[in-house]
Q: What sequence folds into this?
């Protein structure tokens, strides 16, 4: 993580659902500008809860949320300010899409900000282009495939031009090609300066995609550079996550003397297939 001030930050945050046990306790989680960050944890570990706390949909019971270093005020003005900076895309696109057509759905957020019509139109076009779904502008949302609905839901958030785009399990339910396409789209947004935060169970995907990682364990949230954090077997064990394939293969290649210390190993089966060792 960088030392710069986070855009948005949970400080000593605690949360429990009504009559339930604490889900989040004493969590410090800052999201710096311009990074890609993967939030990992097993089912029920609290990823969705943490993302909702970060984006203002839930409010900390203890601790606080800061935007640009200032505590977030949960009134209308404060939440609008937060949402122009931080947008959450929920796991199930059907919980997010409700307008009749894709274009109408994507325009909803910017229109709600009271922006002039031309500005709304420009933002909708930009978001549809970024997600590669400009051709679906007039398509009724209920006629879209699951992958298309996912993209339309993300476009709705992108049209708000947030500094931080948060996605809850964005690759869940997508086929391998759809996953790769989505990662490309997210790479494009990140290259354009948007911070992208993604919750996932997939350690391999996080390792390939993210600069930084945050891992939820029973002892709390552990954060750091993805390549370092996700190579720690004891941490992944504690989080009940599986060691990524690429790390196991890289360790094997090193143990066999086929890869030098510090040299990067193959990140995908395709890269292993092209590995000089594999041919030799
Ligand atoms: N609306 C709710 N009311 C009560 N308890 C809830 C609610 N939503 C989540 N929980 C509980 O809070 C805990 C954390 O859930 P959360 O959805 O944040 O986990 P998660 O890591 O996102 O899980 P998954 O990977 O399965 O999506 C779980 O024990 C869950 O049962």
A:
């Amino acid at each position: 993580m960088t030392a710069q001030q986070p855009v948005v930050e949970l400080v000593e945050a605690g949360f429990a659902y009504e009559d339930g046990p604490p889900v989040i306790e004493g969590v410090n989680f800052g999201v710096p500008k311009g990074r890609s960050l993967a939030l990992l944890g097993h089912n029920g570990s609290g990823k969705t809860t943490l993302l909702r706390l970060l984006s203002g949909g839930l409010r900390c019971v203890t601790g606080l949320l800061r935007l640009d270093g200032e505590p977030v005020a949960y009134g209308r003005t404060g939440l609008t300010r937060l949402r122009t900076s931080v947008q959450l895309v929920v796991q199930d696109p059907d919980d997010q899409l409700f307008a009749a057509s894709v274009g109408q759905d994507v325009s909803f957020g910017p229109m709600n900000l009271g922006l002039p019509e031309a500005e709304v139109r420009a933002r909708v076009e930009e978001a549809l282009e970024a997600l590669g779904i400009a051709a679906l502008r007039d398509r009724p949302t209920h006629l879209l495939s699951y992958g298309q609905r996912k993209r339309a839901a993300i476009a709705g958030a992108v049209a708000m031009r947030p500094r931080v785009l948060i996605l809850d399990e964005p690759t869940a339910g997508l086929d391998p090609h759809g996953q790769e396409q989505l990662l490309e789209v997210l790479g494009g947004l990140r290259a354009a300066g948007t911070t992208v935060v993604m919750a996932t169970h997939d350690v391999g995907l996080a390792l390939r995609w993210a600069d930084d990682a945050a891992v939820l364990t029973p002892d709390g949230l552990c954060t750091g550079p993805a390549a370092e954090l996700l190579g720690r077997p004891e941490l992944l064990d504690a989080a009940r996550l599986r060691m990524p394939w690429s790390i196991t293969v890289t360790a094997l290649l090193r143990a066999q003397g086929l890869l030098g210390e510090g040299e990067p190993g193959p990140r995908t089966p395709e890269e292993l297939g092209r590995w000089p060792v594999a041919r030799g």
Remarks:
- Strands lie at 8-16, 22-31, 36-40, 62-67, 70-71, 86-89, 164-168, 195-200, 212-217, 220-225.
